[in-house]
């Protein structure tokens, strides 16, 4: 093993890096608490790799992050003390495990040899031989690790053995899996676990206000088979992994985005606006937790008069302001503000709040949420408290006859139904108009919750 650098920093060794090297660096950044997309953006920003290799690096990072718990279970069966190895070396092994189990286009010998070369280059031949032995052992197992029963632990009581094996197999922390089982029943929880493990679909929102909107939609429908796409709303679509073409009507998809004809927005975020009827709002709208403004833009494109967007992040608001400036959409006032302490006493219209939440509904897109400590008991208790403060403060500013839409991207009754029920118990002047939760059936499953309240 090389002694000149601490093991934690080994993935940051300078010099030319391929997709797997970048993936190790990103996964190491995630160990230190960085969200997955930020980690991917960080390593790709300093890379001159071709687009194909950049896509591979991102795929490896997201795949290994989703599979982290399953991979740890596999390595725990094949090694005596995997936790004693440097984390970047474990990431090299995780990339190889991902390739062996989930990337059929990559020959097994290539996945193993690449991992061994990585480890040998970073830590020397002794650990390179360890990596080779572990991966050869995994190869000899064949398809056994692709069955949930392989993860059963004889030390777990019989009544829980299959359930805990499912947690390992679908790579979900016990605490989240148990929450879903208790809230929705075991069958639904298993379906959610399975879907959160799969690669997410890509959501595309077409700008209905743009003169080329119909041509764009027709081109997407012609380019992608029906089995690989789903309609989300009149102008929203979702596409299976790898199904979305990079070029349409002779132009790169990126160019269509630059021109404001279409944009990426998760299928769940589009669906909740449509299903709750928010695209029919006609009074002035205040987006109280706007973020980068995806929902504000979607509403504007649907003809909804969004007038104010506030958030606590100047960076996110800056992205919204720059997007609005590039597009032929009505201008929106943008301001820094805490939704729990709004800067005005009242608002003469509707209020939208996409509240900060645990994100348990978007685990496929945010696999870092699975990592140890990201959603511990203290964090899970804190979300409903924050949400209650926000929704109560906004309800006080809600004018008579106007609506407050409360949205989350989580599947947790304590953050969803319980928050709304608590507000209704305290605020007698409010009535619940409608609620919506993403059903388990859509292939693009993302767990969204929404409730619309009206001031009587």
Discrete helix count: 17
Assigned CATH architecture of the largest domain? 3-Layer(aba) Sandwich
CATH superfamily of the largest domain: Vaccinia Virus protein VP39
Overall radius of gyration: 24 Å
Overall geometric form: globular
- Give the number of domains: 4
N-end to C-end Cα span: 70 Å
CATH class of the largest domain: Alpha Beta
Major sheet strand order: 9-8-7-10-11-13-12
Q: Would you write up a description of this structure?
A:
The chain is α/β, with parallel strands linked by helices. It folds into four domains: 16-145, NusB-like (N-utilizing Substance Protein B Homolog, Chain A, Orthogonal Bundle); 158-197, no CATH class; 202-264; 267-455, Vaccinia Virus protein VP39 (Rossmann fold, 3-Layer(aba) Sandwich), CATH 3.40.50. Helix content is 46%, strand content 13%. The strands form three sheets. The chain has a seven-stranded mixed β-sheet with strand order 9-8-7-10-11-13-12, with helices on both faces. Strands 2-3-1-6 form a four-stranded antiparallel β-sheet. Strand 10, helix 16 (377-396) and strand 11 form a beta-alpha-beta unit. It is globular, with a radius of gyration of 24 Å. The model is unreliable at 1-16 (pLDDT under 50).
How are the elements arranged and paired?
Blueprint: H1 19-31, H2 36-45, H3 51-66, H4 68-78, H5 87-102, H6 108-123, H7 125-140, H8 158-169, H9 174-184, H10 186-197, E1 202-206, H11 213-223, E2 229-233, E3 236-239, E4 247-248, E5 251-252, H12 253-258, E6 262-264, H13 267-275, E7 285-287, H14 294-301, E8 306-311, H15 314-326, E9 333-336, E10 350-354, H16 377-396, E11 403-408, H17 417-426, E12 430-437, E13 449-455
Helix pairs in contact: 1-2, 1-3, 1-5, 3-5, 5-6, 5-7, 6-7, 9-10, 16-17
